[in-house]
Design a protein that fits this description.
Elements lengths: L11 H18 L7 E6 L4 E6 L2 E9 L6 E6 L5 H22 L4 E2 H7 L1 H4 L2 H15 L8 E2 L5 E4 L2 E3 L5 E3 L24 E4 L6 H15 L20 E4 L4 H12 L16 E5 L26 H13 L10 H13 L14 H14 L1
Parallel strand pairs: 5-6, 11-12
Antiparallel strand pairs: 1-4, 2-3, 7-10, 8-9
Length: 370
């Protein structure tokens, strides 16, 4: 009997993968000494920035390959305890995927990890296996019935109608305590808009949501939503990122705009290519000196930690977005300035400027609209 039962409609690529895996196992068990094996493609480790659909404004982080796939095979009992352990982990993840598809259930990477945390060891092990399986088959994780638990939040001038006719009204939510407080109206200098946060490094769900809005705004359609009717806006929408003035803030912004190296092969469905940098820059605090007096001056700037220095060096050396010939020379210069001044800043420092953070955003948005 097929691993994926006939009454379950599975993605053809997923079905073919599991059918081939089942056949290879059955052939192996016919031998006197069976050594079942699972072969996965490893995601490329070299990256480049490319144009999407020939549009120079739509650039994204993509994988760089020489046309050949890097394969890794795990067998049982394997050539080492590590290989035996990795085979067991991969097989367990595959079995949970099969079970989810057969029963038409949705699971998360977190639930897979907690199926046997003692065996997996860390969540990162599960994450890597799931991503490698999806990359090997050539599908996204939803085809494996694996979904992400979104941690992002959104509020603003938008209503979303689902297939079940449920309306999600974001205009009435007060999620961001300072920015969506009744003292700060989303219809200020910025005009009507949407505020989105991924609470740090964004999860896949949040990135997909931002990408969806970007697609609707600029392409007037979305491959994700079929038969979507889009009415042109009288003014072109703009996308801005407000992040901390440190290496993580800039890395988060880059993840939204270009994609991440971990999922560079899927950047076309995750990026927001027209994202602009609102702040926070070092010059917003240090150079322009445009803040009111702050009692504790040491709070304004923070020295880089050894981890910050290491991360900045890695970003400049390994991520093509920040290279000398990359698309974001301003971002690269900001990272280099951080290193030179041994300084980083947090967005909270803008609360000390005239009018607080809200006033700073109003002035910044107004200057950018000129």
């Amino acid at each position: 009997m097929d691993l994926l039962q006939s009454h379950i409609i599975a993605n053809p690529l997923v079905r073919q993968f599991f059918d081939r895996l089942q056949l290879s196992f059955l052939n192996e068990f016919d031998k006197d000494v069976a050594q079942p094996a699972i072969t996965l493609k490893k995601r490329p480790s070299h990256f480049q920035v490319t144009s999407h659909d020939g549009d120079p404004e739509e650039r994204l982080l993509s994988t760089e390959t020489d046309g050949s796939d890097r394969l890794i095979t795990y067998s049982w009992p394997g050539k080492s305890p590590y290989e035996a352990w990795k085979f067991t982990c991969v097989l367990r993840v595959l079995s949970l995927i099969i079970e989810a598809i057969q029963e038409n259930l949705l699971i998360t990477k977190r639930s897979i990890y907690y199926d046997n945390p003692g065996m997996f060891g860390t969540q990162a092990v599960v994450d890597a296996i799931v991503d490698d399986i999806a990359y090997t088959i050539g599908v996204d994780r939803t085809a494996l019935h694996i979904i992400s638990v979104g941690k992002g939040l959104a509020a603003g001038a938008v209503r979303i109608k689902t297939k079940s006719d449920t309306v999600l009204d974001m205009t009435a939510e007060a999620i961001f305590r300072r920015l969506v407080h009744n003292k700060y109206n989303l219809e200020s200098a910025a005009g009507k808009g949407i505020l989105i946060t991924g609470k740090g490094y964004p999860d896949i769900c949040t990135r997909e949501f931002v990408h969806l809005i970007s697609d609707i705004a600029f392409r007037r359609h979305s491959p994700t939503l079929q038969n979507l009717e889009v009415f042109p806006s009288p003014t072109p929408p703009r996308f801005f990122a407000l992040v901390d003035g440190d290496c993580d803030g800039i890395a988060i912004m880059s993840t939204y705009k270009y994609g991440s190296m971990a999922h560079a092969h899927a950047s076309t469905s995750l990026n927001a290519p027209r994202l602009e940098w609102l702040g926070t820059r070092l010059e917003d605090v240090i150079i322009k000196q445009n803040r009111t007096e702050v009692e504790d001056e040491d709070w304004v700037t923070i020295s880089l930690s050894p981890r910050d220095v290491k991360k900045i060096r890695s970003m400049l050396a390994k991520n093509p977005v920040f290279r000398e010939d990359g698309p974001e020379l301003e971002w690269r210069a900001e990272l280099q300035t951080m290193m030179m001044l041994n300084t980083k800043i947090e967005t909270e420092v803008l609360y000390g400027t005239e009018g607080g953070l809200e006033g700073w955003i109003d002035r910044k948005m107004e200057s950018l609209s000129l």
